[in-house]
Design goal:
By secondary structure, the chain is of the alpha/beta class. The chain has a single domain (about 15-305), classed as TIM Barrel (Alpha-Beta Barrel). It is built from ten helices and 17 strands. The chain has helices spanning about 30-45, 60-75, 105-115, 130-140, 155-165, 185-190, 210-220, 270-280, 285-290, 295-300; strands at about 10, 15, 20, 25, 45-55, 80-85, 120-125, 145-150, 170, 195-200, 225, 240-245, 245-250, 255, 315-320, 325-330, 335. It has an eight-stranded parallel beta sheet. Strands 1-15-16-17 form a four-stranded antiparallel beta sheet, with no helix packed on it. The structure holds zinc ion. Zinc ion (ZN) binds next to loops.
Length: about 350
C-alpha cells in the first residue's frame, strides 16, 4: 500500500507500559482471545507495543492470568506482563481489592516471576511494605522493571527504593501519599531523581493539567511516559465493567468503583492522550511523541523501537491533520488503516 503523507505526520508507534484492557475486554482474564481483542483495540489507536497489566489478585488467580498472557507475549501481541499489585499499600489501593493486598514474601515473588519466565517486565510495589526492598532486588534480577506505586512511602523511603534499583513511578501522584511542603513523599523523590521515569495518565481527569505542566517542568520531557492505565471500557460504551473482581461504572468515559467511587483506571487510548496534550496542552508534537514512544521504550529496555531510525523496527503511525490515527504499521506491515 502506498501512502500519501501530504498534510499528515508519520510518527513512531506508541508504547504503552501500563494498560489493563480495552474494547470491552481485559487482560485480567484466563481467555487468551479476550486479551488479544483488548490488544487489538489499542493497536488500532496507534499502540504498537503494549504491556498487559494485571491487578491485585490471589496467587492462584495471578498464576492463571500470567499463563494466559504468556503466549501473547511470545507472539509479540504484548511486550510483557505488568504486575500492579498485590504488594501495594492498603492506604492507597485505588481500584485494587483491599482484602487481597499483602506484603511481598520472597517465596511468592519468586514463584510468580518464575511462572512468567522472563515475560513479567514490570512490577509495581510499595517500598514501605515489609520485605519490599529484597523483592525489588528479586524483580530486577528476573529482568523486570521495579516501579514504585500505590504507596504511602515518605520521601526517604522512596529514595531508598530508587537507590536499590526502582526506575519507574507508577502513575505519579495517583494512589500515592500527596505531596506536602514539609512531607514531599514519594512524589517528591520520584519526580526529582533523574533515574526515574514517571508515568502520567493524560486524560484531563487523573491529573490536573497544571500538575502535568509542573511534573514536566521538574522532570523534563525525557522522563515522562504517558500511559493509558486503561480498563476494559477504553474504546467501548459507558456502562458497568469489572476491574479484576471489582465492579466499575463508566459514566461519560470516567470510570469509578461502584463501591466508594474511587477513580478506577481510565478509558484512554494513547492517541486520545496525544491529542489532549498537543491540542489542549500546547506541547509540541515531537515532544509529545517522545513521551508516548521513546521514553517508555527506553524505560522497558526495548532498544529496537521508540523512534524512526535506521535499524529500528518499522512500527509506524500515520496521523491525520487532527492527529487522528489513519494507519498503523508493525514490523513493516500495515496492520490497520481507516481508508
Ligand atoms: Zn493500573
Amino acid at each position: 500500500m502506498d501512502y500519501d503523507l501530504r498534510g499528515r505526520a508519520l510518527v513512531p508507534g506508541f508504547v504503552d507500559q501500563h494498560c489493563h484492557g480495552g474494547g470491552g475486554n481485559t487482560f485480567i482474564t484466563t481467555d487468551p482471545a479476550e486479551a488479544y481483542r483488548a490488544a487489538q483495540l489499542h493497536l488500532h489507536h496507534g499502540t504498537t507495543s503494549l504491556m498487559g497489566s494485571l491487578v491485585t489478585g490471589s496467587k492462584q488467580a495471578l498464576i492463571a492470568q500470567i499463563q494466559t498472557l504468556s503466549p501473547l507475549v511470545d507472539q509479540g501481541v504484548l511486550v510483557g506482563i505488568h504486575l500492579e499489585g498485590p504488594w501495594i499499600s492498603k492506604l492507597h489501593c485505588g481500584a485494587h481489592d483491599l482484602v487481597q493486598l499483602r506484603a511481598p514474601e520472597a517465596s511468592e515473588v519468586g514463584e510468580l516471576l518464575a511462572v512468567g519466565g522472563g515475560r513479567i517486565k514490570m512490577v509495581t510495589i510499595a517500598p514501605e511494605l515489609p520485605g519490599a526492598i529484597p523483592a525489588i532486588h528479586q524483580i530486577i534480577r528476573a529482568g523486570a522493571v521495579a516501579a514504585v506505586g500505590h504507596t504511602d512511602a515518605d520521601y526517604e523511603m522512596a529514595q531508598i527504593a530508587i537507590a536499590e534499583g526502582a526506575t519507574v513511578a507508577t502513575h505519579l501522584s495517583n494512589a500515592m501519599r500527596p505531596l506536602h511542603h514539609r512531607d514531599p513523599g514519594a512524589i517528591g523523590a520520584l519526580m526529582e531523581d533523574p533515574r526515574v521515569t514517571v508515568e502520567l495518565i493524560a486524560d484531563g481527569i487523573h491529573v490536573h493539567p497544571a500538575v502535568l505542566r509542573l511534573v514536566r517542568n521538574e522532570a523534563g520531557n525525557g522522563r515522562i511516559a504517558l500511559i493509558t492505565d486503561a480498563m476494559g471500557a477504553a474504546g467501548a460504551p459507558d456502562g458497568r465493567y469489572l476491574l479484576g473482581e471489582l465492579e466499575v461504572d463508566v459514566v461519560d468515559g470516567v470510570a469509578r468503583l461502584v463501591e466508594g467511587g474511587a477513580i478506577a483506571g481510565s478509558t484512554l487510548t494513547l492517541d486520545w492522550a496525544l491529542r489532549y496534550i498537543v491540542l489542549q496542552g500546547g506541547i509540541p508534537l515531537e515532544q509529545a511523541i517522545e513521551m508516548l514512544s521513546a521514553n517508555p521504550a527506553r524505560t522497558l529496555g526495548l532498544d529496537d523501537r521508540g523512534s524512526i531510525a535506521p535499524g529500528k523496527r518499522a512500527d509506524l503511525v500515520v496521523l491525520g491533520p487532527g492527529l487522528e490515527v489513519e494507519a498503523v504499521m508493525v514490523l513493516g506491515d500495515w496492520v490497520h488503516s481507516t481508508e
